[in-house]
Task: structure prediction
Amino acid sequence: MELEDNSRAAIEFARTVIGIAEKLASTGIVVLSLDANWSSFGSWTLTLMGAEAARSRHVALAARDYQAGPYEVVRAVWDGKERSIRIEKLGWGANWASGQFVLELERRFDNRADGEDFAQEHLGKRVT
Result:
């Protein structure tokens, strides 16, 4: 019975993270990547870009214009063990070329649901 309960909890966790991504996508935010890791205390990562920036980037890449930009990419990382979220930015310039994200904010929560609610609300306002 315990194995079945874990299976259900894991799939519910995956559905929750996908739900966050779907809600953000419904506002025009492009989900570039999603990583949901149940085996790591329910940690997850979403990498996002605004719709207009994603369109511009797509057009530029299709035209082989690899110097076009700038394009802002935002990453949200939920650490399930620490019950904290980090919002990070990959902006244009040296950070973009190196692929290094810069921390914008980090916040702890009493539970996962509060962290997920915060992420959804904050990212909905943050990513344009």
User: Anything to note?
Assistant: The mean pLDDT is 87. Residues 2-126 form one domain. The chain has one domain: 2-126.
